[in-house]
Amino acid sequence: MSLLSIILQAVAESGSGLIALGAGLGAGLAAIGAGLGIGKIGGSAMEGVARQPEASGKIQTMMIIIAALIEAVALFAAVICLLISFNI
């Protein structure tokens, strides 16, 4: 049974199947995006400290602040997806 037939069957039974599927995919994409963003920040911070070790304090502070902002956006996206899926 293909994925498309499963999705079509879920939609035929109740129209809210795609809503739950979209909310799940949205939450997953938000988590993947946050992971990629924080990984990019960590790699860039390591490069910056390697190039200028005397600036490691400033780099670390900015890295933590930006990582917290990315996590906040990802959490916000996950909460929105949960609200969408429960409001079926």
Automatic annotation (TrEMBL):
Sequence intervals crossing the membrane: 22-42, 63-86
Site (Reversibly protonated during proton transport): E71
GO function terms (MF aspect): lipid binding; proton-transporting ATP synthase activity, rotational mechanism
Membrane topology summary: Multi-pass membrane protein
CDD domains documented for this protein: ATP-synt_Fo_c (cd18121)
GO CC terms, sorted: plasma membrane; proton-transporting ATP synthase complex; proton-transporting two-sector ATPase complex, proton-transporting domain
Primary location recorded for the protein, binned into one broad class: membrane
A Pfam family hit: ATP-synt_C
Coiled coil: none
Keywords: ATP synthesis, Cell inner membrane, Cell membrane, CF(0), Hydrogen ion transport, Ion transport, Lipid-binding, Membrane, Transmembrane, Transmembrane helix, Transport
PANTHER family from the UniProt entry: ATP SYNTHASE LIPID-BINDING PROTEIN, MITOCHONDRIAL (PTHR10031), ATPASE PROTEIN 9 (PTHR10031:SF0)
Summary of subunit composition and partner proteins: F-type ATPases have 2 components, F(1) - the catalytic core - and F(0) - the membrane proton channel. F(1) has five subunits: alpha(3), beta(3), gamma(1), delta(1), epsilon(1). F(0) has three main subunits: a(1), b(2) and c(10-14). The alpha and beta chains form an alternating ring which encloses part of the gamma chain. F(1) is attached to F(0) by a central stalk formed by the gamma and epsilon chains, while a peripheral stalk is formed by the delta and b chains.
Role description: Key component of the F(0) channel; it plays a direct role in translocation across the membrane. A homomeric c-ring of between 10-14 subunits forms the central stalk rotor element with the F(1) delta and epsilon subunits. F(1)F(0) ATP synthase produces ATP from ADP in the presence of a proton or sodium gradient. F-type ATPases consist of two structural domains, F(1) containing the extramembraneous catalytic core and F(0) containing the membrane proton channel, linked together by a central stalk and a peripheral stalk. During catalysis, ATP synthesis in the catalytic domain of F(1) is coupled via a rotary mechanism of the central stalk subunits to proton translocation.
Protein name, as recorded: ATP synthase subunit c
Organism (species): Leadbetterella byssophila (strain DSM 17132 / JCM 16389 / KACC 11308 / NBRC 106382 / 4M15)
